[in-house]
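Q: Got one fold?
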Amino acid sequence: MAISPPSDIVNDVARAADPARYQAAAQKLLDGASAVDGASFEDAVKSVAGQPLMASGADVYTLRNSLRNDAESASAARTKKAHQEFEAYILQTFVESMLPKDAENTYGKGNAGSIWKSMMAEQIGAQISKAGGIGIAQHVLGTRATGPSADIPAPRPMPPFSTKI
């Protein structure tokens, strides 16, 4: 036995719910959005079309350096976010291990309860990390910025191989 639903269920439901409201919404979509305060996108483009691309006194090298600095700051922001997400994951495992094991009244039973508990621990860990965390992200970022630790001795070089046995 096969079913064949109507071609557009959403439109049929909208028409059946309130035909007058459906017609009003459809008419607003057909009319298009009016500009706010009389300013449209076309007016905004026309207003900046006559302005030069570079400010007076700026050269190509200054613009290049500012773009480079913007890219480096964006890269630093992505790196910081990645470290913060790592800390959130570590905190999630800490929080999940601290939550009570036998609390079916709180989390629910079976797989749904364990999934809910895991999701709650994930959100708690993310919020703690977002609020500053416990310093894991700062520590990892700090060691990454300074390079290898001075406390760890450098490996000794291998002794030269000898042909004598």
